[in-house]
Design a protein that fits this description.
Strand order of the largest sheet of chain B: 1-2-3-4-7-6-5
Radius of gyration of chain B: 26 Å
Radius of gyration of chain A: 18 Å
Largest interface: A-B, 54 and 42 residues
Helix content of chain B: 40-55%
Distance between the termini of chain A: 42 Å
Number of helices of chain A: 10
Distance between the termini of chain B: 83 Å
Order of helices and strands of chain B: HHHHHHHEHEEEEEEH
CATH class of one domain in chain A: Mainly Alpha
Oligomer: heterodimer
Structural class of chain B: alpha+beta
CATH architecture of one domain in chain A: Orthogonal Bundle
Largest sheet of chain A: none
Number of strands of chain A: 0
Shape of chain B: elongated
CATH class of the largest domain in chain B: Alpha Beta
CATH architecture of the largest domain in chain B: 2-Layer Sandwich
Shape of chain A: elongated
Number of helices of chain B: 9
Order of helices and strands of chain A: HHHHHHHHHH
Number of domains of chain B: 3
CATH topology of the largest domain in chain B: Phosphorylase Kinase, domain 1
Strand content of chain B: 15-25%
Structural class of chain A: mainly alpha
Largest sheet of chain B: 7 strands, antiparallel
Helix content of chain A: over 70%
CATH superfamily of one domain in chain A: RNA polymerase sigma factor, region 2, helix turn helix motif
């Protein structure tokens, strides 16, 4: 990714190509940001900023797959914004309550208690485990693409996924013991 | 293959990342390894559970905000509605379009009809459009018969906010100077709203606009907070005394409702509730100080 000053100013034609190549992945960008931030308002900020950065970097886009390319920008934007805003924005308590909600509690409630439990368990995982599972299972990216998003070797991605699944099993079992929600045996 | 080896392959196998020969070797090893079979089952179950989580599409307001930026960057000379080049496929994939989506649809049709530009439906799937129309109609009916006056007022406030957020400038008079904004309302509405710039408090004044709430023409002051907009709608109250602002969340918006210095105040923004609360406090302090 070149520095901003190196980037040519996007013109109408660039914006048009950007619309057809990158903008269709806005749902995926928002979805990833939603799981990273665990907050709908923050997720919108991250997704918007990422889209604008993606447009600035679009001249350097070489026709590789657009979705992992965009996801990497989303992730870097999230890291930058978090640094800029500091962690003091939300007290830990709020963060934990939020984490227990998962995205869209209303829809999840309609979809059933099981989904809500799974979403809450995923949201409660540390970011490193959470994001690798989101990229693999929800965004359905291959190890190669996940490695590109996270800027890690494929072997590291593989072991992170294995570790993240172990953590999620523990998290879900903890929830299962606390209440009877008909989760299948793990 | 020894167990530590096959253990490391479980996840890659579930994720379809092994080559054909690796898969075959793993499957053979699995027969003699109950522990790895258990791990495999657990990984598969987890994968299934995660994949059935409902996807949350990008909110329409986010789309509108990005569209606004793209139009500005592209140097839009033509009027182009946010819907025109947008992808509405996500709507068709959803089991039931949510309230907000339906309301925005209705709004977009109203705006498109009023300004006689290209219909948002031009690039859209008509099946999805028809489905959401039915939903919009039934919501309208519910709004009238069940939700009542309070619900309709909120609907109108949110709809007004979306119109503001989607339009190019969002205001009829653009100025951060209260001495420009306040006189602009004179002769356009039958009361004089208190106007203050709240830059010091983190909410610079963007300008003012008119809207209709419950058939009445009202003043709307628009503020900015980072890249978010806050719409403050206010009109003279029939009741006296101040009330503390109550902030609630709906469809990703924060809504505040309170009474201060003889005015009924309503604020709408895509902000976190705590930021909205800070905004209402800033408004109250500025109005009180000005008396």
């Amino acid at each position: 990714m070149g520095r901003m000053s190196d980037a040519p100013k996007p013109d109408g034609g660039t914006v048009g190509r950007f619309r057809s190549v990158v903008l269709p992945h806005l749902d995926a960008a928002y979805g990833y940001a939603r799981w990273l931030t665990r907050d709908p308002v923050e997720a919108q900020d991250v997704a918007q900023e990422a889209m604008l950065r993606a447009l600035r970097y679009f001249h350097a886009f070489r026709g590789e797959e657009a979705r992992p390319w965009l996801m990497r920008i989303v992730r870097n934007t999230w890291i930058d914004l978090r640094k800029r805003n500091g962690a003091e924005k939300l007290p830990l308590e709020v963060l934990e309550t939020r984490a227990a909600e998962g995205p869209d509690p209303e829809q999840s409630a309609l979809a059933g208690d099981r989904r809500r439990q799974v979403a809450a368990a995923l949201a409660a995982l540390p970011a490193e485990s959470r994001e690798v599972l989101v990229l693999r299972e929800i965004e359905d990216l291959s190890y190669k693409h996940i490695a590109a998003v996270l800027d890690l070797p494929i072997g590291t991605v593989m072991s992170r996924i294995a570790r993240a699944r172990e953590k999620l099993v523990v998290e879900l079992k903890g929830r299962l013991e606390r209440s009877e929600h008909g989760l299948p045996d793990l | 293959m020894d167990c530590p080896t096959c253990e490391t392959m479980v996840d890659a196998y579930v994720d379809g990342e092994l080559t054909t020969s690796e898969s075959a070797a793993f499957e053979r090893a699995l027969e003699g390894c109950p522990e790895c079979r258990r791990r495999l089952e657990a990984a598969r179950t987890l994968s299934g559970l995660l994949r059935e989580l409902p996807a949350e599409p990008a909110p329409d307001l986010l789309r509108a905000r990005i569209e606004r930026e793209l139009r500005t960057i592209a140097g839009a000379s033509r009027v182009r509605l946010p819907g025109a080049g947008m992808r509405w496929g996500a709507m068709a994939a959803e089991p039931a379009p949510d309230l907000l989506r339906a309301r925005i649809e209705r709004e977009l049709r109203t705006i498109a009809g009023a300004s006689r530009v290209r219909l948002p439906g031009a690039g859209m799937r008509w099946g999805a459009m028809a489905a959401s129309l039915i939903v919009a109609v039934s919501i309208g009916w519910l709004g009238g018969s069940l939700v009542g006056q309070g619900g309709r007022e909120t609907d109108e406030l949110v709809a007004g906010y979306i119109r503001m957020a989607m339009s190019e400038h969002g205001v009829d008079v653009a100025s951060s100077d209260r001495h420009t904004v306040k006189p602009w309302f004179a002769g356009r509405i039958d009361y004089s709203p208190p106007v203050h710039d709240l830059t010091q408090e983190g909410f610079p004044l963007v300008g003012g606009r008119l809207d209709f709430i419950d058939g009445r023409k009202v003043a709307v002051l628009v503020y900015r907070h980072n890249q978010h907009r806050v719409a403050l709608t206010l009109w003279p109250s029939s009741l006296s005394g101040n009330t503390a602002a109550t902030v609630r969340q709906r469809d990703g918006f924060a809504l505040a409702e309170w009474r201060h210095d003889g005015f009924d105040m309503r604020a709408v923004a895509d902000l976190a509730p705590a930021e909205m609360k800070a905004f209402t406090t800033a408004v109250d302090a500025a109005v009180t100080e000005d008396r």
